[in-house]
Amino acid sequence: MDAPRFERYSAVPLFEGLQHEEIGALLGYSETVEVEAGDVVIDEGSSPQYFYVIANGVLDVVLTDKGETPKVLARLSDLSCFGEMGLVNDAPHSASVIAVENSRLRRFSIEKFHQLMALEDRVVYRMILGLARLISHRLQSSDDRRVR
Q: Were both Cys, which of 96, 112, 130, 145 would link to 14 (CB 3.0–4.6 Å)?
């Protein structure tokens, strides 16, 4: 991939601080997935196999919570990521992710990233640091909502 094609991905929180060439290398491990409105990309309770970056489109994070009325926890759009917790935690997905409109995603295999970590791939470790920042930011946002 040439620089103009992946330069926009530098806005993805997981890729924060990475050089464009490093982002291109990471994107080389992904595949493009097209989803239609209503498609379930991640099913609550399923085992994590992939994480995603939204190239373009809109998806909802939905909690079904044992048959109760589904609750939309978040609406994600271009360059948001989801499913990334599976990189560090084998626990089943805590919510579903459903396409609101036709969307194009970049899908990354968690198994492939674990293989790269075992090889001590520096770029993958730098991406994991971006994941730690993202988790920290989400936790802080959650704490801020509770305090108010």
A: 130
